[in-house]
Amino acid sequence: DTAVSQTPKYLVTQMGNDKSIKCEQNLGHDTMYWYKQDSKKFLKIMFSYNNKELIINETVPNRFSPKSPDKAHLNLHINSLELGDSAVYFCASSQRGKASGELFFGEGSRLTVL
Amino acid sequence: AQSVTQLGSHVSVSEGALVLLRCNYSSSVPPYLFWYVQYPNQGLQLLLKYTTGATLVKGINGFEAEFKKSETSFHLTKPSAHMSDAAEYFCAVSEDSGGYQKVTFGTGTKLQVIP
């Protein structure tokens, strides 16, 4: 049973389209994250939610809109996709106050914008 | 603001040789430090972590790291490399951000193991 699962694993789409990535965790954690990993493997945090509340919002274009319907789910919707959005997007979770920020990652969703 | 520097984006070792991956950090408060490993087409998984206490920490797959405050380093080592160790390794630092832990990753080091 996968702890942090993301769907879809691969997306290929045209510029200007809108796409969504879903994430679910069954670890009972209260905090979830979206990270972007570029082609050089650099990992940058985008958003973090704690119990459905947005707590970290890095400098990300407002075309990216996260949504957390409950603490076990964090989805990412991207409008008007651009070439530079091509990357691997990782969902992660952690428990606030525990393990000092240890993160549990999903397997990633590879987005390719043509 | 916290930051992490990993020296060497690529490291090659022979099978059976010592693995040494370097990490230096910058943090305004006592840091929590981590090493994560990423195998091809997978997410990151925790190798080991330093929070408080013993400065030499042991992780999975025979890896260990030593926290050296005076050198602001947290280098990762393994006495004998195995082919299965080939992966991307990320050092990370965690710092309190308004009551929450914000994790910052280094740029990663790709470990190649030569038979």
Summarize the SSE layout with pairings.
The complex is a heterodimer of chains A (114) and B (115).
Chain A: E1 4-7, E2 10-13, E3 19-25, E4 31-37, E5 43-50, E6 53-57, E7 64-70, E8 73-78, E9 87-94, E10 104-105, E11 109-113
Parallel strand pairs in A: 2-11
Antiparallel strand pairs in A: 1-3, 3-8, 4-5, 4-9, 5-6, 7-8, 9-10, 9-11
Chain B: E1 3-7, E2 10-14, E3 19-26, E4 32-38, E5 44-50, E6 56-58, E7 64-68, E8 73-78, E9 87-97, E10 100-105, E11 109-114
Parallel strand pairs in B: 2-11
Antiparallel strand pairs in B: 1-3, 3-8, 4-5, 4-9, 6-7, 7-8, 9-10, 9-11
Round the Cα radius of gyration of chain B to an integer and report it: 14 Å
Shape of chain B: globular
User: How many strand segments of chain B?
Assistant: 11
**Could you report the average pLDDT of chain A, rounded to the nearest whole number?**
91
Percent helix of chain B: under 10%
How many helix segments of chain B? Answer: 0
Biggest sheet of chain B: strands, sense, closure? 6 strands, mixed
Low-confidence runs of chain A: none
What is the SS-derived class of chain B?
mainly beta
Subunit arrangement of the protein = heterodimer
SSE arrangement of chain A, N to C: EEEEEEEEEEE
H/E element order of chain B: EEEEEEEEEEE
**Strand-residue proportion of chain A:** over 45%
- What is the percentage of strand-forming residues of chain B? over 45%
Average pLDDT reading of chain B? 92
Largest interface: A-B, 25 and 27 residues
Total number of strands of chain A: 11
The share of residues in helices of chain A is under 10%
Could you describe the largest sheet of chain A, including whether it forms a barrel?
A: 7 strands, mixed
Taken from the alpha-carbon principal axes, the silhouette of chain A is globular
